[in-house]
Amino acid sequence: MTSPIRTAVFPVAGLGTRFLPATKATPKELLPVIDTPLIQFAIDEARAAGIEKMVFVSHPTKASIERYVRHDHDLAEQLRDKGKGEVADMLQGMAACPHSEEIQFVMQDQPLGLGHAVLMAREHVGEEAFAVILPDDLILGEPGCLKEMVEAHAQCGGHLVASMEVAPEETKSYGVLDVLERKDKFTRARGMVEKPAPEDAPSRLAVVGRYVLDSSIFEDLATQTPGAGGEIQLTDAIAAGIARVGLAGFEFSGKRFDCGSKSGMLAAKLHMAAGDPEYADVMARHGLRTEQIDRIAAE
């Protein structure tokens, strides 16, 4: 049995260029799906998985993320003075709890890659296995994806990555597993190829934005030379540790939306709206049904 996963790293330093001009003043992670920012979904998923420490690797220009994550006492008091105590209670419940959660912010000044962002959290992670959550990969479902992965990691240890089947033409957008063996929701892998062309892809099993990683990955990240785009690639460091700790993909049960893209964000909003009676009239007026939306999201 492996140790419990207590820490999650949230890489949130990216500039969100695909959503400009909206992200000129508002971080991508604070863009809402209806009325809930992407970062809140990620935080809630981490909490449901038993995470006690959250490390946000951010950028100096994105101070609003820390303001969102922490409790805003002044705002709560203003809301209560205006008779909006229920709203104040809701916001306090969503914010980090100083009594049960440890929150750390680390600044990544230069865009040196996802691997570099994870490496910057090393001091706050220590020697235990830990999780990484990419907030713009929205995964909806019960139980949450990270909870499933934490439970799965207790069985297999090593590096565990969330994986899903993609269309052949989509492999060029993902890290793709080189499969050794598939059993139930687990896929043992001999390696991982970053963004292969369809004809070069070793499989169609793509890695998406949830990871549970052995802490030894920090040594691989610290000694790794820059890869594609001059960045420190997390996938390269994961691959470097396979012989030592192993690598497995885990096929989660939830529904994933790539909210780093405009089409994925739109699909997520339509999916949430379709499941909420408050928006039933609007959806019906435009002839939109849940099954249609989910089909669009899968394309």
UniProtKB/TrEMBL annotation:
Domain Nucleotidyl transferase: start-end pairs: 13-271
MF terms in GO: UTP:glucose-1-phosphate uridylyltransferase activity
Its EC number(s): 2.7.7.9
Keywords linked to the UniProt accession: Nucleotidyltransferase, Transferase
Catalyzed reaction equations: alpha-D-glucose 1-phosphate + UTP + H(+) = UDP-alpha-D-glucose + diphosphate
InterPro entries linked: GalU_uridylyltTrfase_bac/arc, NTP_transferase_dom, Nucleotide-diphossugar_trans
EC class of the enzyme, as a word: transferase
Gene Ontology biological process terms, A to Z: UDP-alpha-D-glucose metabolic process
Similarity-based family: Belongs to the UDPGP type 2 family.
Protein name: UTP--glucose-1-phosphate uridylyltransferase
The organism of origin for this protein: Albimonas donghaensis
